Amino acid sequence: MHNEALTADELKALLKAYARCWLAHDGCWFLSVEEDLGTEEAIKYDREAWRKFAPLEARRVMEARGIEAGGGLAALAEALRFRMYSWLNEQEVKLSGNTLTFEMKGCRVQEARRRKGLADFPCKSVGTVEFGEFARAVDERINTACIKCPPDELGEGEFCSWRFTLGEG
């Protein structure tokens, strides 16, 4: 195989490049739908795409990392560390008792919009599906709640944050 001789740094650089390509494709897909059908319809289709993709991503991360399904918030914390976003966006995961808090400390999408003088993209309805489905794929007992996410008002340098709690079956 052509990539067997790559160093760890070369592999990391490729992972970051692949993650940027993945995000660019997601953006191109969204813009294509938005141009044809409008923003609200594009967001509707984006939610449905994430409803399908998020559990697939969770299962693949879990398989690659040896994370057992039903492992609670500790399993979710580990899985979140290895999502595609983790190669692009600085994020923080805090596990305390029966609560896991996830905070996006940097977001390439929103940062690009802010540099262009655009309003934050209103991703809360998409994120609710995305994070909820990802968490449930790790453990069906996990409940997801948005702490804040656009279109919510965010402070300077703030991005989305989410709270996960472990409930009963």
Overview of the structural elements:
This protein is of the alpha+beta class and 169 residues long. The protein has a single domain, classed as Muramoyl-pentapeptide Carboxypeptidase, domain 2 (2-Layer Sandwich), CATH 3.30.1380. The chain has 5 helices and 4 strands. It has a 4-stranded antiparallel sheet, covered by helices on one side. It is globular.
Provide the descriptors you would attach to this structure in a database record.
5 helices; single chain; 169 residues; 15% strand; four-stranded antiparallel beta sheet; globular; alpha+beta; Muramoyl-pentapeptide Carboxypeptidase, domain 2
The helix/strand series, from N terminus to C terminus, equals: HHHEEHHEE
* Classification by helices and strands: alpha+beta
Total of helices: 5
Low-confidence region ranges: none
Number of domains: 1
Our measurement of the CA-to-CA distance between the termini, rounded to an integer number of angstroms, reads 44 Å
Q: In what range is the share of β-strand residues?
A: 5-15%
CATH architectural name: 2-Layer Sandwich
Helix residue percentage = 40-55%
Name of the CATH class: Alpha Beta
Strand order of the largest sheet: 1-2-4-3
Query: Main beta sheet, described?
Result: 4 strands, antiparallel
Q: Write down the CATH topology.
A: Muramoyl-pentapeptide Carboxypeptidase, domain 2
Shape: globular
Query: Radius of gyration over alpha carbons?
Result: 17 Å
- Mean pLDDT comes to 94
**How many beta-strand runs?**
4
